[in-house]
From TrEMBL:
<dbReference type="GO" id="GO:0007165">
    <property type="term" value="P:signal transduction"/>
</dbReference>
<keyword id="KW-0547">Nucleotide-binding</keyword>
<keyword id="KW-0342">GTP-binding</keyword>
<dbReference type="InterPro" id="IPR005225">
    <property type="entry name" value="Small_GTP-bd"/>
</dbReference>
<feature type="region of interest" description="Disordered">
    <location>
        <begin position="1"/>
        <end position="24"/>
    </location>
</feature>
<keyword id="KW-0488">Methylation</keyword>
<protein>
    <submittedName>
        <fullName>Ras-related protein R-Ras isoform X2</fullName>
    </submittedName>
</protein>
<dbReference type="InterPro" id="IPR027417">
    <property type="entry name" value="P-loop_NTPase"/>
</dbReference>
<keyword id="KW-1003">Cell membrane</keyword>
<dbReference type="InterPro" id="IPR001806">
    <property type="entry name" value="Small_GTPase"/>
</dbReference>
<dbReference type="Pfam" id="PF00071">
    <property type="entry name" value="Ras"/>
</dbReference>
<dbReference type="GO" id="GO:0005886">
    <property type="term" value="C:plasma membrane"/>
</dbReference>
<keyword id="KW-0472">Membrane</keyword>
<dbReference type="GO" id="GO:0003924">
    <property type="term" value="F:GTPase activity"/>
</dbReference>
<feature type="region of interest" description="Disordered">
    <location>
        <begin position="176"/>
        <end position="196"/>
    </location>
</feature>
<dbReference type="GO" id="GO:0005525">
    <property type="term" value="F:GTP binding"/>
</dbReference>
<comment type="similarity">
    <text>Belongs to the small GTPase superfamily. Ras family.</text>
</comment>
Length: 201
């Protein structure tokens, strides 16, 4: 049950694909891959690349997972500087993992020198609702306070796995559109500009 958000465009190579190349980091609740990708081996991998189609746009995801690994602690800010978007992941059955999220969120904004940045808060292990330690309202309150989307996911029942990656890519596209408005083209039309509002090339 691996990540399968879409089908790559035929014959497209990573160099041909639209940018940005988002780097996603699973914070607090361990490894993004180990929760969302069943064939991930944490002994030999801490990052991987996936090419998928999101809203009709071929996109390369460079997914880097540093959380829960002591050896990456000193390099965490470096990864935050290069990351274009972040998944902040905690386990709904582990309040300690949720407590770590505020630290990571604050650190990302400090490193980026921003008041806001593309992030998605993900409550993982939604299939363990009977063991829930983090009330949904508590997670939603944090998300509202920090103006980031919140969703709950479960690899076991395949809930919002692909969607969490899709949403952070959409957040990256919106952010980069706001930061870098498209340059005028030789044939600008209002219909064309509205036709692909999330396309960052």
């Amino acid at each position: 049950m691996g990540l399968n958000p879409g089908v790559p465009a035929p014959h497209a190579s990573p160099a041909d694909l639209p940018r940005p190349v988002p780097e996603l980091w699973g914070g607090a609740d361990g490894r993004t891959q180990s929760y969302f990708v069943s064939d991930y081996d944490p002994t030999i991998e801490d990052s991987y690349t996936k090419i998928c189609n999101i809203d009709g746009i071929p996109t390369r995801l460079d997914i880097l997972d540093t959380a829960g690994q002591e050896e990456f602690g000193a390099m965490r800010e470096q990864y935050m500087r290069t990351g274009e978007g972040f998944l902040l992941i905690f386990a709904i059955n582990d309040h300690g993992s949720f407590n770590e999220i505020n630290k990571f969120h604050t650190q990302i904004l400090r490193v980026k020198d921003r008041d806001e940045f593309p992030m998605i808060l993900v409550g993982n292990k939604a299939d363990l609702d009977m063991q829930r330690q983090v009330p949904k309202e508590e997670a939603l309150a944090f998300a509202r306070e920090n103006r980031i989307p919140y969703m709950e996911a479960s690899a076991k029942i395949r809930l919002n796995v692909d969607e969490s990656f899709h949403e952070v890519v959409r957040a990256i596209r919106r952010f980069q559109e706001q930061e870098s408005p498209p340059a005028p083209t030789a044939h600008p039309t209002s219909k064309e500009s509205k036709g692909c509002p999330c396309c960052i090339l």
